[in-house]
Every structure is written in C-alpha cells, then in structure tokens.
Amino acid sequence: MQRFIKLSAVTAAIIAAPAFAAVDVSGNIELDNTYYADAQDQLTQTGRVELNFAGKKEVGSAYVAAKGTIEAGKAGADAVADMWVEGGTSAFAVRMGRFEATDMFVPGKDTLVVGGVGYNGNTLRGRRGASEPHVMVTGKLGAAASFELGLIETNTVGTDTNFGVRPVVAFGAGPATIKLAAEKLQGAADTGFALTAGLPLGGAAINVNYSQMGDANGYGVNATIGAFGVGAAAGEDAAGNKGNYVFAAYTVPFFVPEASMTFAVSSGKNAAAGSAKDTGLRVRVNYSF
C-alpha cells in the first residue's frame, strides 16, 4: 500500500505540471459485500480503489496514446492493472504492454458470477503476468470490418516459454456486431475458436457467446435492459467436467449521481473435477471521482 501511495503522489505531482496538463485522470472505489451459501457459507467484504491515467498526442494523421491503471485492494495489496503505449493512425495501430484485448465471451452485467465454463476464448486475451510480452496490431478492413492480431508469450504449457497468437475479426452493421477469434499456443495440442455476437432487441442489448478448444467448450447468452441484467452460460472442460452459471443484477442510484448500488445474485459450478455448486448474493457500492 505504501508503494501505491508514493506512486500516486508522484504521478499527481507530475500531472500538475503544465507539460502534462492534457493527461486525463479518473478513479473510483468499488466495495463488494458478498454472501456465499451452499459450498462456502460465508460473508465477505472485498473491494479496490482504481486510479486511471491516460494521455494522447496527435500530429497530423498519426498519434501516440498511453494508459496506466493502478488498483489497490481492500486487503492492502496493490497492482498495475493496465500499462500500455499505442501508436499509429486511424487505420492502423500497434499497442504493447499490459492490457486486455477483445473479450470473446462478453459477460453483460456480470456483477457476480458463481461458476464457470470449460473454455471461453479468452486464454490469450492478456493481463497474464508481470514480465510476459504482449503486442497487439489493429486495423480496418473496410467501413464495417476490423481486425486485431495479438502476439503474446506465456508459460502456460509446461515450464517453457511459449508463443501465442490470437487473431480477431469483427464485423459491424449499426448496433449489431459479430466477432470471430482463434487462439493458438505453441506446444498446445488444440486451437481454440470463439464467436460472440451482440445485437439490440427492443430495449435490450443481447450477447450470444460460443467457444471451443478440443473437447472443452463454453456457450452462453445474456441481456442488459437499462439497469437490469440477466445471463446464463454452460460448458465443459477437456476431461468432460461440466460447469454452468446463471446471474442477475440490478443497479440503483446511491444518493448522488456519481455513486451507485448494485444488487446481484448468481448460482452455478465450475467446470473442474470436484467443484460443487454454490450460490452467491452481492451488494456492490461504486463511487466514481
């Protein structure tokens, strides 16, 4: 925590200087009060403070952008969630550092998820470790299509460093989108494939997800309607262990516009041998500053 305070103080002093006046600073506090029944039967209180620093400089059609996100947990631990630099144009860009690429199992309003599927298409999405290199190339394929190519090193397979490739292609028509992805890790027997689609239906935003890697898979659907969200997913791992979950959440204002309170419930089990079904209830308080 002391390191977090010192880093925040130094960053704040730098941003106060005229040369860094264009840096955007934001933050929020999130506190979760959660009761787990069935398998755990316990009440927990967790949370974190998040500070975001972002900047962008444009020269003609080119730009360089950067972002840093620092998180301090209620338990006293602090960490860097995001730290990346990106350069390019409106048609082509390269990003490197610590970040998450496109989500291929879009969760919807997942304030609380108890359980899990066998494979969700996000193994090589990013934020993997302290020293694993991650580079992503993005570009446009036309007015309604774009691509993303992630290159990452990981030691997931065995103890050796392995090279992973994650291409993603996205197609959009108005508010509807379809994204296709593949994940291939050097040394792994199988290649993962994933599809996620988002579409409006009445006043709801619907997400449909499907992913497959060998015998492991995951599939689900969720909907967000204003302040309310609901979803379900299921799947199994390579050993045939089945997992699933359902969730629902509803957000209300908490006295002032910058604060909210979300009530959430979820039930399910992880797709892993020996996992037991559990149910959770959560009240999340968030304040943005």
Automatic annotation (TrEMBL):
Q: Which UniProt keywords apply?
A: Signal
Q: Which domain of life is it from?
A: Bacteria
- Signal peptide positions are 1-21
Protein name as annotated = Raffinose porin
